[in-house]
Amino acid sequence: xxxxxxxxxxxxxxxxxxxxxxxxxxxxxxxxxxxxxxxxxxxxxxxxxxxxxxxxxxxxxxxxxxxxxxxxxxxxxxxxxxxxxxxxxxxxxxxxxxxxxxxxxxxxxxxxxxxxxxxxxxxxxxxxxxxxxxxxxxxxxxxxxxxxxxxxxxxxxxxxxxxxxxxxxxxxxxxxxxxxxxxxxxxxxxxxxxxxxxxxxxxxxxxxxxxxxxxxxxxxxxxxxxxxxxxxxxxxxxxxxxxxxxxxxxxxxxxxxxxxxxxxx
Length: 265
Fold this sequence. Notes:
Layout: H1 2-17, H2 20-33, H3 35-46, H4 52-62, H5 68-86, H6 90-118, H7 127-158, H8 162-186, H9 195-222, H10 226-230, H11 234-264
């Protein structure tokens, strides 16, 4: 227990010293730019098996875990993607999917750079290897989004009301834990963390992510009226803030995993 607390303090100190908040802002910017391409890639792929109406319903279930205005913004973009899916078929659908993956890959590249900095890495990946890693992360995010949409919709049908909300947050935490732990495990090139250290970092991220998402959502719904200050940009500001919080927590988990690795050496 003492070593865990020491690693937590060391991880927090590493994150503060490396300006993790500023780096997270960069990830948030690229993540926001990748929103539409990532949604398009996820739901164009998902749409190969289901109809546009089902996509819209499942997407609505998925956005319920986001802070109010952010969820509305993502839902609006998802509606646009669904409409485009309705008019695409054959080769056009393949081209649209390829372009969406390329657009979303930019955010994955920014995430890899940030994690390299968190793990104090000096990567020597070549152009091809770096792009393949970014594409692998992008494809993983696309598949995870599609899977989460289907599972969340099913859970929301089984558990009505607050039970569905709790179940959605639980699934969000499981997905966050798995994704973060996998990223911490595969991104470091020279000084890889162990599976246990990556899982500790993933657990810290998932716990903080659920708490931050729920807390920020409660705050924006009851106290923070961003529309008064920012007008029509209120939803954008809420969504950017939520992405920034998520990115900062992801980097904190990485620093915690790195600190655990150093303590074990």
